[in-house]
Design goal:
78% of the residues lie in helices and 0% in strands. The chain is built from 21 helices and no strands. The longest helix is centred in the C-terminal third of the chain and has 34 residues.
Length: 422
């Protein structure tokens, strides 16, 4: 059964209760029965509507009744039956007119007026007329209506629909209290929405934690908690939530996985960042683009994992990184004192071009020659560098050679002196 059908049933039950079953409807009415002729027609209308559900036939009898001269008792009964028929036929506006007429003419006792306002509100709610439904819910309360759990929920939803979020929250929180340990997901979802709207981050965080305990695999609640921390500039907490989501396998898209990679790097964990990036690239969930390869190489280098950085830099160079990536490869080999490999990569970098400063590449090649005792080759590269670093190396080598020459002279003089004294 649909929600509107349930509402209709509730309205009918409440309406019949409010009208009563045959007593006079107002203190001013002294009549308490039908005249024989009117009663005969009324019974036919009631039989057609309530028993046979023949509303077209009932309408014909109702028209006959309206054309007759009715006493107050009969008029009240006709209004009651008319409202019933209109609701059953889906003529909600007609039903509302009947109910309002009954109120205005005193056919409904004062003690039942609140229930009638409530019934009118429910009819408007069936018709998706939120403003009118809320108007009559307020009249119901003003007439003494005390909302139970169901009615508080209706009020929470109605106030939310008209953007009165603070009042909606009051009723939603009352519903949650009434529910106690009886968890209702729709209540928590509404509370999450409303706390967001009124920007109550503390209560939002609390209710999200409650929801997450019951729905640990529901992605949207994890996202909401992370978003709440982001909004409060609590990035470390947001990172911890995102990390938990990653470890639980909730993050699968490239942009989500890259967020985790960047988070680890941001919070000074470049090695963990590199491990995740490489793992996800190998799994095909992050593309092996030049930008991602460069980032992976950077992360390993910052973490001083040069052995791991080298194959990544090779991939980046092959993927179109150009001379710059081969220069980085040469530097990485130099850091590991793999001098031949360093020179090979740096030569490739110079061939490919695109370097910001060719002189630096020549200096590194010169250093690799120097470390392999190729002093003439080293000098040639330092001269080719034509920069301060190259000149410093040349000066250093000149100093080394001068010192070596001085030592040779000293040794010669020392040997001569020894022979003369012997």
């Amino acid at each position: 059964m649909g929600f509107k059908a349930i509402l209709r049933g509730a309205v009918l039950a409440g309406m019949l209760t409010a009208f009563g079953t045959g007593a006079a409807f107002a203190q001013a009415c002294q009549e308490d029965q039908f005249t024989s002729k009117t009663g005969e027609v009324y019974l036919k209308a009631e039989q057609a509507a309530m028993v046979n559900k023949d509303f077209e036939g009932a309408a014909k009898f109702m028209n006959q009744l309206r054309a007759m001269e009715l006493n107050c008792y009969e008029e009240g009964a006709v209004v009651k039956l008319s409202a019933y028929i209109n609701i059953e036929r889906g003529d909600r506006q007609g039903a509302i007119r009947d109910l309002m007429s009954a109120l205005e003419k005193g056919y409904i006792p004062a003690k039942d007026a609140a229930q009638t306002y409530y019934n009118i509100a429910q009819i408007y709610l069936q018709d998706e007329n939120v403003d009118k439904a809320l108007e009559y819910m307020k009249k119901w309360q003003q007439a003494g209506g005390q909302p139970d759990r169901t009615q508080k929920w209706q009020l929470a939803v109605l106030y939310q629909r008209v953007d009165d979020f603070k009042t909606a929250l009051r009723y939603a929180e009352e519903v949650k209290r009434d529910d106690g340990s009886n968890y209702k997901q729709e209540v928590y979802d509404l509370l999450i929405y409303l706390y967001n709207q009124v920007d109550d981050k503390a209560k939002l965080a609390a209710v999200l934690e409650e929801v997450l305990v019951r729905n640990p695999t529901e992605r949207k609640y994890w996202d909401a908690i992370a978003g709440n921390y982001f909004a409060a500039d609590e990035e470390r907490k947001a990172f911890e939530v995102q990390k938990a989501m990653y470890l639980a396998g909730m993050l699968t898209k490239e942009d989500e996985l890259m967020r985790i990679v960047n988070f680890y790097n941001r919070f000074n964990a470049p090695y963990h960042s590199a491990q995740i990036l490489e793992k996800e690239m190998n799994a095909g969930r992050i593309s092996k683009s030049l930008a991602h390869l460069e980032l992976l190489a950077n992360l390993y280098q910052v973490a001083r994992e040069h052995e791991k950085a080298i194959p990544v830099i090779r991939q980046a160079a092959s993927a179109g990184g150009g001379g710059a990536m081969y220069e980085r490869l040469g530097r990485s080999y130099a850091d590991l004192q793999k001098w031949e490999d360093a020179e090979e990569a740096l030569r490739k970098a110079l061939e490919m071009g695109g370097l910001k400063d060719k002189g630096n590449a020549h200096v590194l090649i010169g250093q690799s020659r120097y470390e392999r005792d190729d002093r003439s080759g080293a000098r040639a590269e330092f001269r080719a560098a034509n920069n301060s670093a190259g000149r410093s190396w040349l000066g250093f080598m000149d100093s080394e050679e001068a010192t070596a020459d001085a030592l040779v002279c000293f040794e010669v003089q020392d040997r001569k002196s020894t022979r003369l004294n012997s």
